[in-house]
Amino acid sequence: MSKTTGVVAVWCAGIAAYTVSITNRTSLAALGLETAEHFAVDPATLSLFAVLQLAVYGVMQIPAGLALDRFGPRAVLTVGMTLLACSSVVLALAPNVAVGIAARVVLGAGDAMIFPSVLRVIGIRFPRRLAPVAVQATGLLGQFGQLISVIPFAALVHVAGWVSGFLALAGTSALVAVLVFVVVRENRHERVQAVAMRTRLSEAWAESGTRLAFWAHFVTPFAGNTFAVLWGYPFLVGGLGLAQTTAQGLFTVYVLVGILIAPVIGGLSARMPQRRVALVGVVVAVQAAAWLAVLVGSGPAPLALLVLLAAALCIGGPGSMVAFDIARDHNPPYRLSTATGIVNGGGFLSSVLVILLMGWALRLHSHGGDAYTLDAFRYAELVQVPFWILGMAMVIREGRRAGAARAPAPELHSVLSRG
């Protein structure tokens, strides 16, 4: 097997793992109302399924990054996929809501290990000029996992039942765990020299480019995550009264437009690194404008506007990948995954807070009645606004500090190849 073929094989195995991890992450996206009925819970409790899952994901980013720098992607990917399989088994057989939420906590821990591992493979093995495009390609191909969760997986649960559906997902995750263990091979440069954890963390955060990347990742994906992971389907079906097939169609738009826009954003990030802050600003402005257009009307938004909303929200995912390009250009190899872990935690911190606050807002606005009304959602969606304001203020601040004062770090694969 040639070196190029080996790199592609490892990358493809990583993409398969990321796709299945997205399927696990968003497995409740089209089953929010069914989950509430299955466990007999209110919106605030339902939000805990996503909040705790994403909170653990965010908390685990730094440990996952440290583990990657120390043990390499093969071990971390295998452990992560195994945890995903276990979480689906537990959720399938959960006798009560507490066990169900615990299963999502385990899922968050396993999910946290997957994408940083793929980023590590790209950062180590791909040339700098190709890395931004490879990151975007990974992101867009992984998003098929969300499409799987919304259409075939949701249909399987409806037809075969809760237990059978989640056990099937567990089996798929276990098979991919075996795949990455067999296919992912590491050379002697994959694991860098051990450096004290405190040193790596402090050095990574002291770097202004890392802080810029953190806030860029904080502000770009939470609107799309909130929509895709939990509250989008209840909003469309419960708040707007759309048919389930129509809601699934909008989620399909969300995924497909993301696939189309990801190479564009990746190409812009690669060709114009000095314009990355502006690119983040455009992504945020489009998402905020789309939500404003949907929420200001007196009645339900027309379908055409909802299609535009789905298309606007999906760009948050590709937009957030720009943060990893920033982090990669400002950190040397020995702390790359540590910095990536810090950055990746940003978007999931904001997503956790927004999802939780929306659940509380829906419960407060329901006054003991139906929580999933259009008026309740109009009230709840406004919690996103302060997060956009804070995030963009910090992006502008750190962008000025980073500026052109620091030259990009040496290309990873060339540095490592020198030993």
What this model shows, in words?
By secondary structure, the protein is mostly helical. It has one domain (3-183, 196-404): Growth Hormone, Chain: A. It contains 21 helices and no strands. Helix 1 packs antiparallel against helix 10, helix 8 (131-142) runs antiparallel to helix 17 and helix 15 runs antiparallel to helix 16. The longest helix has 31 residues, at 336-366. It is globular and about 55 Å long. The model is unreliable at 407-419 (pLDDT under 50).
Question: What is the global morphology?
Answer: globular
CATH topology: Growth Hormone, Chain: A
The tally of domains stands at 1
What class, by secondary structure content? mainly alpha
| Number of beta-strand segments | 0
- Poorly predicted runs: 407-419
Describe the largest sheet.
Answer: none
Radius of gyration: 20 Å
Tell me the name of the CATH class.
Mainly Alpha
Helix content: over 70%
GO molecular function: transmembrane transporter activity
Keywords: Cell membrane, Membrane, Transmembrane, Transmembrane helix, Transport
Main location: membrane
Pfam family, one: MFS_1
Quick rundown:
The protein is mainly α and 419 residues long. The protein has 21 helices and no strands.
Q: What is this structure's SSE topology?
A:
Blueprint: H1 3-25, H2 32-39, H3 43-59, H4 61-71, H5 73-93, H6 97-111, H7 114-125, H8 131-142, H9 144-160, H10 162-183, H11 197-206, H12 208-219, H13 222-239, H14 244-271, H15 276-295, H16 303-314, H17 316-329, H18 336-366, H19 374-381, H20 384-402, H21 412-417
